[in-house]
Each structure stands twice: as structure tokens, then as C-alpha cells.
Specification:
By secondary structure, the chain is of the alpha/beta class. The protein has helices spanning 3-17, 31-35, 62-75, 117-135, 137-142, 161-169, 180-184, 244-251, 253-257, and strands spanning 48-51, 79-83, 146-149, 202-205, 208-214, 221-228, 261-265, 276-278, 287-288, 297-300. The strands form three sheets. Strands 4-5-6-7 form a four-stranded mixed sheet. It has a three-stranded parallel sheet with strand order 1-2-3, covered by helices on one side. A three-stranded antiparallel sheet has the order 8-10-9, with no helix packed on it.
Length: 321
């Protein structure tokens, strides 16, 4: 049985058998939370738990919340990372403020009894807050700090990146920090008690920042966790790319933290196709490529990937590297 299959079986077992437990606020589940910073343990371990594509509307499924709790209790991570598309911005609850693309103006439908733009966005903000409160509740209760970046659906609800980030920062366990653009724009809201009081956060823009992780003696940084807002869609079609500011931030990150970083983003990069090999359409598990790779079929290159991997669809990446 592959490691992934074992993890899925463990989580499924937790969902059936493990009761929703309370948490001792004086003893967080995250060891890093107890230390006050992201740091390797005496055991030599440091654990990151990733949540991808929660895609929740205001009515968050109880199964989603149970799965988050089971994953957290099973993995016991130092930090959890949400890698985009937490918010189903296309949900009908956001109809008043929906925008199809990030650069599209967020509009409010007119008509009899129509509310103002400010009122509509305020209601959307409250709905987004309540959605986050539901799916992040297990992390808040169990004492696991968490951070978020954005995908192609989050901002379709109509909130701008600064305002979306401010909503996340209102939660006690969120590690997202205030970007300089938010400060200058008057959105430097008070976060209250930071979840990791001794943790440095290097900030570029909403959804793009880095979290240094120190060695067991807290003497030096040994790795960084770099979250990157990968954008949503390109004006020329297909998926978008990070901003120039984000790419510049990444380019100078190693010199700033003194170590390499693990990059975390939502939209895949074209280099993933280097892990595939082109083959006939009739090959087992063959998939067709996306946009620039359309018309060609691929399978996993077993010499370039770990055993147990599975390819279920074309790699959806930007046309431009």
C-alpha cells in the first residue's frame, strides 16, 4: 500500500472512530506553537500540513470540518498551509459582488431594492469571515498556527486581496502579516495576540510572504516556507502567473533568510511536464495536456517520480513560464 493510501485510510478511520475532542488552550497541539516560533524539534522533525482546494461556500459541509480536524489530529503539524481556493467565490451567495476575473470590476446588481456597493461588499466580507471560521475552527481549537495563499477562485467573491487578507488576519491563529500596501491603504487592522510571538514573517503582498524555520537550537534559519499568490487567470487566456513583485521577492529571498525555501502556490508551474513523458493516447492512465500542451498525451515518467504516484488530469499551468 502506498504512503498516500495509508494516510487516506488513517484519516478515514479517524472520521469514523475518533470523537471531536476539546483542546487544552494552555498546551497547543503544535510544538512550534508551544515554542512561539517555527522550529525543528529535538527529534529532528518539523511538519507542515497542506490543505488544498477547500472551495467552501458560506454553508460549509460538516464533513469538511471533520476532515480538517481528523487530518490535524493525525498529522500533529507545526503549521498548516492553505494553498488557495479556500473560498468558492463562484458560490451563489456572492452573486451581488461576483467577478469572473481578478481584474474585472466587482459589481453590484441594480434593480428595485438594490443595496449599495459598500453594503454588498460588507455582506460578502461577513460571509467570507463565517466560512473561514467554520473550516479553520479545528486549527483554532487545537492550537495549530496556519497561513494562507490564494488561488483562481478565492477573489471571485468580489473582495480585493488586501481586504481578503485582513479577514484572515482577524483570526488568532493566522500567520499572514500586514503587507506595506495594506498599511498605506489604511487596512492595518489590529490582529491581537500573534499565534507565534517570536516568529519573523517576510511580507511582499497579500498571499505572498515567507516564514523562516529555525534549527533545533534556534541559532539559525535552516529553511523557509515561501507562500506565493499565483494569480488567477491571464488576460490572454488560461491561468495567470505571480506578479512581478512576487517574482522579485522570491528572487531575493535566499539572501534575506540565509537558506533555501519550500515554495507553496496554487496554480501549477509548467515544469511539472518535465515529470511526464509523451506517449500514445491508448497508454494506460494517459492524459491530454493543457492549452500549450494540448493535442499531446502524457503519462508519469517513473524515472522522475516517486513510486505510487498517479496522474489524473493534465497539468493546468500558465502558458507562459
Amino acid at each position: 500500500m502506498s504512503e498516500l493510501a495509508r494516510d487516506i485510510r488513517t484519516i478515514a478511520s479517524d472520521l469514523r472512530l475518533r470523537p471531536a475532542s476539546g483542546a487544552d488552550p494552555s498546551r497547543p497541539l503544535s510544538i512550534s506553537a508551544r515554542l512561539g516560533r517555527l522550529q525543528f524539534h529535538l527529534s529532528g522533525k518539523f511538519r507542515v500540513l497542506q490543505f488544498a482546494d477547500v472551495q467552501a461556500g458560506p454553508k460549509v459541509s460538516r464533513d469538511t470540518v471533520r476532515l480538517v480536524r481528523a487530518a490535524v489530529e493525525s498529522a500533529r503539524p507545526d503549521v498548516a498551509i492553505f494553498t488557495g481556493n479556500q473560498i468558492a467565490g463562484y458560490d451563489e451567495a456572492y452573486e451581488e459582488t461576483f467577478r469572473k476575473r481578478r481584474w474585472s470590476p466587482s459589481h453590484v446588481h441594480g434593480g428595485p431594492g438594490a443595496v449599495s456597493r459598500r453594503e454588498a461588499l460588507g455582506r460578502t466580507e461577513r460571509l467570507v469571515h463565517d466560512t473561514i471560521a467554520a473550516f479553520a475552527a479545528p486549527l483554532e481549537e487545537l492550537g495549530v498556527p496556519w497561513a494562507v495563499t490564494y488561488g483562481n477562485h478565492d477573489l471571485q467573491c468580489g473582495l480585493d486581496p488586501d481586504r481578503m487578507d485582513a479577514v484572515y488576519r482577524s483570526f488568532a491563529g493566522c500567520l499572514n502579516a500586514v503587507p506595506a500596501s495594506a498599511v498605506s491603504g489604511g487596512l492595518a487592522d489590529a490582529q491581537g495576540q500573534r499565534p507565534l510571538p517570536d516568529q519573523d514573517v517576510l511580507v511582499c503582498e497579500p498571499g505572498t510572504f515567507a516564514l523562516p524555520v529555525s534549527d533545533v537550537d534556534h541559532a539559525r534559519t535552516v529553511i523557509g516556507i515561501a507562500l506565493v499568490d499565483s494569480g488567477d487567470y491571464s488576460r490572454s487566456g488560461g491561468y495567470g502567473s505571480p506578479s512581478r513583485e512576487a517574482l522579485g521577492f522570491l528572487a531575493g529571498l535566499r539572501s534575506r533568510i540565509g537558506a533555501s525555501s519550500m515554495g507553496v502556490r496554487h496554480v501549477a508551474v509548467p515544469q511539472y511536464y518535465r515529470l511526464l513523458r509523451e506517449g500514445p493516447r491508448t497508454a494506460a492512465h494517459a492524459i491530454e495536456g493543457y492549452r500549450a500542451f494540448a493535442g499531446r498525451t502524457f503519462v508519469l515518467d517513473e524515472s522522475a517520480t516517486l513510486p505510487g504516484g498517479f496522474l489524473g488530469e493534465g497539468v493546468s499551468c500558465p502558458d507562459v513560464d
